[in-house]
Amino acid sequence: MAVDSLWHYQFRIVTLGDSTVGKSSLLKRYAEGVFLDSMNQTVGVDFYVHFVELEPNLRIKLQFWDTAGQERFRSVTRSYYRNSAGGVLVFDLTNRASFENIRNWHREVIETVAPQPVVFILIGHKSDLESERKVGQKEAEKLATSLSARYIETSAKTNRNVKEAFQILTSGIYESLKSGSMRPSEHWDGIKSKLPPIIQPNMQPEERIKNCQC
Q1: CATH value at residue 144
Q2: What is the model's pLDDT at position 131?
Q3: Is the previous residue joined to 184 through a cis bond, with omega within 30 degrees of 0?
Q4: Which conformational region is residue 122 in: left (phi greater than 0), alpha (psi within -120 to 50 degrees), or beta?
Q5: C-alpha triplet 19, 154, 166: angle, nearest 5°
Q6: Per DSSP, what are the bridge partners of residue 45?
Q7: CA distance 63 to 183
Q8: Angle 162-179/23-32 helices, nearest 10 degrees?
Q9: How many domains does the chain have?
Q10: Rounded to an integer, what distance in angstroms lies between the CA atom of residue 131 and that of residue 114?
Q11: What is the CB neighbour count within 10 angstroms for residue 153?
Q12: Does residue 173 contact residue 119 with C-beta atoms inside 8 Å?
């Protein structure tokens, strides 16, 4: 059986942030287990896939869309927002401007996908460059709270918190699925399922009366 068929849910996730903050390095470390000191800037959108077992016998396929941070690609990358269940907001801890632009990236996604919800995580990247830090942890945590997101600091170079960051996001999407705030749909590619719905809609009292055979 092909590996790609061995999943129960597929979550589509988009990565967002300024150019050179390390979005591609993070995904390459997580999905392929490697770190490259220098990577070419993403042109348009790149694609990564990773499989996780979130719970025993519950296999999730994570489909990552790695978007370019340059303005000239924005019209291309926006088209990938609408079909995303998760958003990875990445800034460079040594680059103050990349942190200040996070609200813009978040707002752009929200305005594109509304009213469809998106689960976000805020990542402060390049934590190995502590001596060059320009953004404090408490300040970043405050921003994350205002965006209804979790915050974590990572380093693709040292592999610090890389797995943990994507675990948090995956769990957040799954919780939204279980709560019913997100649902698989043939008209939306954010979540695909090979299982029956986790939450069955409750039948309203008037529907029960209408359907009664007594």
Answers
A1: 3.40.50.300
A2: 97
A3: no
A4: beta
A5: 90
A6: 67
A7: 17
A8: 80
A9: 1
A10: 39
A11: 21
A12: yes
Instruction: Write out pLDDT tens, residues 175-210.
Output: 999 999 999 988 889 999 987 665 444 434 444 444
What is the pTM for the complete model shown? 0.84
**Would you state the structure tokens that stand for residue 8, as one six-digit string?**
């129960």
**Token pair of 178 as six digits:** 């279980």
> Over the stretch 59-98, which tens digit does the pLDDT of each residue have?
999 999 987 645 444 555 567 788 899 999 999 999 999 9
Domain that holds residue 109: 3-211
Cis peptide before 115 (omega within 30 of 0): yes
Q: How far apart are CA 12 and CA 169, in angstroms?
A: 11
Buried b (16+ CB within 10 A) or exposed e, 101-117: bbeebbeebbeebeebe
Name the burial class of residue 3, with classes exposed (0-12), middle (13-18) and buried (19+) by CB atoms within 10 angstroms of its CB.
exposed
Tokens for 80?
A: 């990938």
HSE-CB at 193 with a 13 A cutoff on CA atoms is: 17
Name the residue with tokens 């068929």. Answer: 5
